[in-house]
Amino acid sequence: MRNIYQLPFSHEEVFRGEAGQQVPYHRMYGKQYCVPALTVYSPAEMQELRAAVEAVDGIYCKVMRFIQQYMPDSFLEQQLGIHPGLIPAARLEMVTGGITRQDWIIGEAGPKCIENNTDTPTGIPEAAALEGILVGMVEKISLHAPSKGMDECIRECFHRWLDAYAQQGLLGPVTFTSFGEHVEDRTNTEYLMKLCQEAGYETFYAPLEELEIIPGKALYHHGREINLLYRLYPLEYLIDDRDETTGVDIGAALLELVQDNRLGLMNPAQHVLMQSKGFMAAIWSLYERNEQTMEYCGFRLFNDAELAAISRYLLPTYFEAGPFEWSAMPYVAKSYWGREGRGTSLLGEGSDHHAGQTAASHQLHAPTNSNTIAELQEEDEIAAYYNNQPKIYQQLVPMEQAVIQTEDGEYSGYLLTGVFVIGGRFAGVLPRIGEKVTGDMAYYCAAVVNERMDDEEEKEWTIWD
């Protein structure tokens, strides 16, 4: 059971000031999202996690380059599920290291990385700003906020990106875009924009719905040409976007600008390769065939340290369920482009569980308004979008339980530890407590490292144990 420290303040007392300004979506979907509590990690746990996430990031970047340089388009399309229209842009080699977030389970077998969000990760203001505010509300000198260096990592990342794009001749202001009316996305985007400004660059915010594109020429916002774009919008959505009025394939036109070196994207288009969950199966396949790469490529892909890191921190992941069914081992089925737990199922040994099964336990009441049918139809369409995608199959490891106090009473859930890796460096921690499949109804419970984890201190800190 994970140690949780409940702050001696109500939700309103915590979020009526700066905390609520930094994360205005501290309540979402009519319920509490951020809780006034801290997820307690030991120094040893955090030390290993720091080394582990950087090792995994290095492996991801190495395999990405290998796929870009050695694997045919058919592999990208079939094994990774990359839309053919995305492949040319995904093959463009940009500096490695971006704004990413790995998701980890910390259990008896040690820390295991189960996913990597490399294209459009969110949760940035929670870790970079809110965590420090919440930890600062407890007067204990033995506490450490593990995400306190995240802002600097982000500024350095923008320097790396924009220096690289400048060498390609892409200069000028950086435009930041997201859906303007989506509070969470806009807050995450504007937080990054503020740090880009602090790094010394001119910036603009442009709602996604206000961008205009002239195919073969440029991307614009109110007549201003855009050469550099941070977008909190997934590329697998973008490629299918079409202007119903003009008939222009917006995604294809934008990616053509990228291919022609008229537009620099952040995160770069190459990140879509790692965002595909098929990438996890590709890593494991290459790990199991490491000696064979000598025959085909003239070198071993992974060195001994990388092999050890894959064995310790990643999980067996395959393009088919057979290896788990033959051994009667519990496993997880994940849709290639699943987000917020959608398209994920836990299978084997009585553990069958599909994302969304327990969502009702978080709802305050059943919807009764006139939009109910339309809302349910939309939800069915979203579920079908994710469930009908190709899937990968990954060994199931048990999640650590955690109990928190919410406005609706005591909640017993499971801890997923998100870790931001920015520019190849450990940057911050995003703990969420939810169901066995962590969805968008999970609670954010900020991370803290207790530098003095002796028995007396642990008893004092363990409120729910």
What does this structure look like?
Helix 3 (43-70) packs across helix 14 and helix 7 (150-167) crosses helix 8. A hairpin with a 5-residue loop joins strand 17 and strand 18. The model is unreliable at 356-370 and 455-465 (pLDDT under 50). The chain starts with a strand and ends with a helix. It has 465 residues and is α+β, with helices and mostly antiparallel strands. Strands 1, 4, 5, 6, 7, 20, 21, 22 and 23 form a nine-stranded mixed beta sheet that branches. It has a five-stranded antiparallel beta sheet with strand order 15-19-16-17-18, with helices on one face. It is built from 17 helices and 23 strands.
Q: Can you give the helix content as a percent range?
A: 25-40%
| Percentage beta strand | 15-25%
Q: What structural class is derived from the secondary structure elements?
A: alpha+beta
**Whole-angstrom Rg:** 22 Å
DSSP strand tally: 23
- The number of helical runs is 17
Low confidence ranges: 356-370, 455-465
Q: Overall pLDDT, averaged?
A: 91
The span between the termini is 6 Å
Describe the sheet with the most strands.
9 strands, mixed
The 3D shape can be described as globular
Give a short synopsis of this structure:
With 465 residues, the chain is an alpha+beta fold. The chain has 17 helices and 23 strands.
SSE topology sketch:
Blueprint (H helix, E strand, L loop, with lengths): L3 E3 L4 H5 L2 H5 L4 E2 L2 E2 L1 E8 L1 H28 L2 H6 L8 H4 L8 E9 L2 E8 L6 H12 L7 E2 L5 H18 L6 E4 L5 H16 L4 E3 L5 E4 L3 E4 L2 E3 L1 E4 L3 H4 L11 H10 L4 E3 L4 H5 L2 H11 L3 H6 L6 H10 L3 E2 L3 H6 L3 E5 L8 E4 L5 E2 L17 H16 L3 E5 L4 E7 L2 E14 L2 E10 L8 E8 L4 H7 L4
Parallel strand pairs: 4-23, 8-9, 8-13, 13-14
Antiparallel strand pairs: 1-4, 2-3, 5-6, 5-21, 7-23, 10-11, 11-12, 15-19, 16-17, 16-19, 17-18, 20-21, 21-22, 22-23
Helix pairs in contact: 3-14, 7-8
